[in-house]
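Anyone up for a design puzzle?
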């Protein structure tokens, strides 16, 4: 169980989990400067490059982390900070952010996107398994009136202290 928990933590690359502290908006939780390249490999499909992948842990066959140039040279400079290859057990229905928003009848595509209260700066590179999405709505920040897209996932996150995140 501990191995699965650590695997899931790497899967999201700290981008979504850390940003859930206090559910604050405008908290920069996605530092892409030194982030590894994520590749989602579905059976019988081309690899998908991603910034974030929200899929059920039971659908993951393996996760491999590569830092050496032998494994990363295929992807060039994009993989200079490493490569995380996620293989699934079976083909999954995966939605892009645009497809997910259309599913929830959200037509305002120029709004900031928050996933589990963490802002995403490269939302076009996120992929979702539909069963992992609890809701997607247009919300309004109380103090400023700023509108944004709020996506809530079923990713299991628990906090024992306000500044620490634990994965179930």
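Challenge accepted. My sequence:
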């Amino acid at each position: 169980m501990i191995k699965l928990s650590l695997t899931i933590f790497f899967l999201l690359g700290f981008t979504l989990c850390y940003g859930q502290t206090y559910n604050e908006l405008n908290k920069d939780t996605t530092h892409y400067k030194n982030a590894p390249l994520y590749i989602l490999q579905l059976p019988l499909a081309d690899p998908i490059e991603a910034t974030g992948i929200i899929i059920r842990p039971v659908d993951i066959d393996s996760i491999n982390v590569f830092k050496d140039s032998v494994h990363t040279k295929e992807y060039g400079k994009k993989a200079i900070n490493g490569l995380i290859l996620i293989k699934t057990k079976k083909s999954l229905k995966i939605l892009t952010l645009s497809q997910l928003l259309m599913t929830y009848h959200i037509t305002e595509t120029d709004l900031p996107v928050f996933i589990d209260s963490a802002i995403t700066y490269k939302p076009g590179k996120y992929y979702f398994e539909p069963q992992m999405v609890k809701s997607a709505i247009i919300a309004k920040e109380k103090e400023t009136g700023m509108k944004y897209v709020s996506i809530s996932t079923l990713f299991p996150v628990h906090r024992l202290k306000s500044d620490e995140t634990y994965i179930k």
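A detail worth pointing out: The longest strand covers residues 133-140.
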